[in-house]
Amino acid sequence: MLRRAKELRRALKGIEVDFSRAVRLCYARSASIFWMEPLAVAYPKSAEEVVRVVRACAELGVPITARGAGSSIAGQCLSRGLVLDFSRYMNETIEVDPEGRRAKVQPGGVLSRLNERLRPYGLFFPPDPSSADFCTVGGMAAVNSSGARFVRYGPTRRWVRSVKVVLSTGDVALIGREGWEASGKGAEILRTAEAVVERHRGTALKGAPKVAKNASGYALWEAAEKDSLLPLFIGSEGTLGVFIELELEVHPLPRRRACVFSLHRSAEGAAEAALR
Ligand SMILES: Cc1cc2nc3c(=O)[nH]c(=O)nc-3n(C[C@H](O)[C@H](O)[C@H](O)COP(=O)(O)OP(=O)(O)OC[C@H]3O[C@@H](n4cnc5c(N)ncnc54)[C@H](O)[C@@H]3O)c2cc1C
């Protein structure tokens, strides 16, 4: 462990990385019941730094885990390897295009801050986990978050137009609804992923879960249905690549809000009414 830490320190020279016990203990926790102490915590400031970290870790055999706010409740952001914390520096809203109803963001930006930025344009980002005041957009995309307005607006996957990701080889890929761009080994990986989806198309479509909300597993059925790798990456919990930029679709703010109080004889009846 000590040797690995030394090698990592050398390989990541110039990048902000904390190996101190105090910081590692902080990152050993999340909103889950689990506990796992990482080797170190890196705070990347740019896409180039993320690429360097991924390449160095691949070479040294150190696992990496991306982290936003650490508010996921199943231990997804914990790691024995290197934690990549996006919330410290890579947390900006890069641009808002009100006419095109798009926003480009870095992964570590907090949802409520994005919505503050969108409000003057009469826009908002609809997925609404109740952790909105602290969860990050990268974390939301990685777990396909949704909240109380799910029935109306659907989960995060529905609102992501494209993601820029660093793949396990350190190659950067742009994956959108209509296709992807990548070079070298990155392109090879994505072509293989497409072939896997194609090979299992029938099974994936037949096995599509018939539920309104599903945030478990890779969305193979949606990738098959939409002929796109994007649904696979959204909800992949950082296992397929690390997001470094996201292009989001945003929506006009509702003109009015109302609260409806309705009484039902059963929970099933209430759920059916909500879906209507
Ligand atoms: C009080 C509370 C209320 C909550 N309410 C809801 C709710 O209503 N709906 C809901 O869906 N969830 C809810 N959650 C769970 C959680 O807040 C959300 O899932 C949230 O979207 C996670 O975001 P995060 O920034 O905390 O991600 P983290 O917990 O830091 O990470 C979550 C996952 O995303 C991955 N990840 C993070 N950043 C990146 C990146 N840049 N690239 C690739 N992968 C990345 C991590 O590796 C990990 O697998 C709640 C949690 C709490 C504590």
Tell me what the structure shows.
This protein has 276 residues and is α+β, with helices and mostly antiparallel strands. The protein has two domains: 2-85, 2-Layer Sandwich (Uridine Diphospho-n-acetylenolpyruvylglucosamine Reductase, domain 2), CATH 3.30.43; 93-252, 2-Layer Sandwich (Uridine Diphospho-n-acetylenolpyruvylglucosamine Reductase, domain 3), CATH 3.30.465. Helices cover 33% and strands 17% of the residues. It has eleven helices and twelve strands. It has helices at 2-11, 21-26, 47-60, 111-118, 137-143, 150-153, 184-199, 201-206, 220-226, 230-233, 267-275, and strands spanning 17-18, 40-42, 64-67, 82-85, 93-97, 102-105, 123-124, 160-166, 172-176, 180-181, 242-249, 251-252. A six-stranded antiparallel sheet has the order 5-6-11-8-9-10. A four-stranded mixed sheet has the order 1-2-4-3, with helices on one face. Strand 5 and strand 6 form a beta hairpin. Helix 1 runs antiparallel to helix 3. The longest helix has 16 residues, at 184-199. The model has no long low-confidence stretch (mean pLDDT 95). It binds flavin-adenine dinucleotide.
